[in-house]
Design goal:
Largest sheet: 6 strands, mixed
CATH topology of the largest domain: RNA Polymerase Alpha Subunit, Chain A, domain 2
Helix content: 25-40%
CATH architecture of the largest domain: Beta Complex
CATH superfamily of the largest domain: Ribosomal protein L25, C-terminal domain
Shape: elongated
Number of domains: 2
Order of helices and strands: HEHEEHEEEEHEEEEEEHH
Number of strands: 13
Oligomer: single chain
Number of helices: 6
Radius of gyration: 34 Å
CATH class of the largest domain: Mainly Beta
Length: 254
C-alpha cells in the first residue's frame, strides 16, 4: 500500500512543482512612530501598521495600505507569498510572518514582515489538500479522517509551494498516509516526525455498531441451537428422552 501511496504522491508532485510562489511588490511607509497610539491613528486612514525584522538587522516600524496588503495576500500564493517590500526605493525580500486581527471584527490590526535570504531556506506552514477517492474505504462503509491540515516545511524562497496535495486513492481501512509518504520537491524538507499520520482510513461508529449487532445475532442463534440433538428419524433427543422417562415411570407404578 505504501508503494502505491508514494507513486500517487509522486504523480501529484508534478502539479505541485508548477504551483510555486510568485513574487509580489508592496510599498511600505516608514514614517510612522512605534506605539499603540500611532497604530490607532494610521488604522483610521485605512492603513495597517507593521514591522520589518530578521537577518540580524534592525527592526523597522512601517505601515502599508490595506488595499495593497489585501491584494498581496489574496493571490494564488496565499499567505506565504514572497513579497518584495519596497522601502524608500529599496526592495527587500520578505514573507508575512504574523498577522494580528481584531477578535470580533477580524480586521487586520498589525502585520509582521520577515526579511529572508534568497539563498537560505525558510520555515513555513503549507496547507494540505486531499485529492482522489478512497474507494476501498468507502466500500467498507468507512471514512477518511484527516489529522493534519498543514505541514511545516523548510524550503528555499523560490521553491515554497502554495499547497501540498495528498492523494488518498490508495488508502485502505486501518492504514494511513503519513508525512514520510509524501514526495516533496527538491530542496523542500518536511519538519517533524515522518510517521505522523496525515489521513487515516477508519470504520465509522455506526458501521462498528452494525457489525457488533450482526455478530451478536449470529452468536445468539448459535447458542440457542446448542443441546438439541436429532435422531435419524428427525425427532430431537430432548423429546425422546422425555418419552422414555414417562414410560419408565409407568412401569414402576405398575
Amino acid at each position: 500500500m505504501k508503494s502505491l501511496v508514494r507513486l500517487a504522491c509522486r504523480v501529484a508532485i508534478l502539479q505541485f512543482e508548477e504551483n510555486l510562489m510568485e513574487e509580489i511588490l508592496l510599498t511600505a511607509n516608514t514614517t510612522r512612530e512605534m506605539g499603540s497610539s500611532s497604530s490607532r491613528r494610521v488604522r483610521k486612514d485605512g492603513v495597517v501598521p507593521g514591522v520589518l525584522y530578521g537577518l540580524n538587522e534592525k527592526s523597522v516600524p512601517l505601515s502599508v495600505t490595506w488595499p495593497d496588503l489585501r491584494r498581496a495576500l489574496t493571490t494564488e500564493s496565499g499567505i506565504n507569498a514572497i513579497i518584495q517590500l519596497e522601502i524608500d526605493g529599496k526592495k527587500q525580500m520578505t514573507i508575512v510572518k504574523d498577522i494580528q486581527r481584531h477578535p470580533v471584527k477580524r480586521d487586520v490590526m498589525h502585520v509582521d514582515f520577515l526579511r529572508i535570504d534568497p539563498n537560505k531556506n525558510v520555515i513555513v506552514d503549507i496547507p494540505l489538500v486531499m485529492i482522489g477517492e478512497a474507494r476501498e474505504v468507502s466500500a467498507a462503509d468507512g471514512m477518511v479522517d484527516q489529522n493534519m491540515f498543514s505541514l511545516t516545511v523548510s524550503a528555499p524562497p523560490d521553491r515554497i509551494p502554495t499547497e501540498i496535495e495528498v492523494d488518498i486513492s490508495a488508502l485502505t481501512v486501518g492504514d494511513a498516509v503519513r508525512v514520510g509518504d509524501l514526495s516533496l520537491p527538491e530542496g523542500v524538507i518536511a519538519e517533524g516526525d515522518p510517521e505522523d499520520p496525515i489521513a487515516v482510513g477508519m470504520i465509522t461508529r455506526s458501521t462498528l455498531e452494525s457489525i457488533a449487532a450482526d455478530e451478536a445475532a449470529v452468536l445468539a442463534a448459535e447458542e440457542g441451537g446448542e443441546g438439541i440433538a436429532f435422531t435419524e428419524d428427525g425427532d430431537s433427543g430432548g423429546q425422546e428422552g422425555g418419552a422414555g422417562g414417562d414410560s419408565e415411570g409407568a412401569a414402576e407404578d405398575g
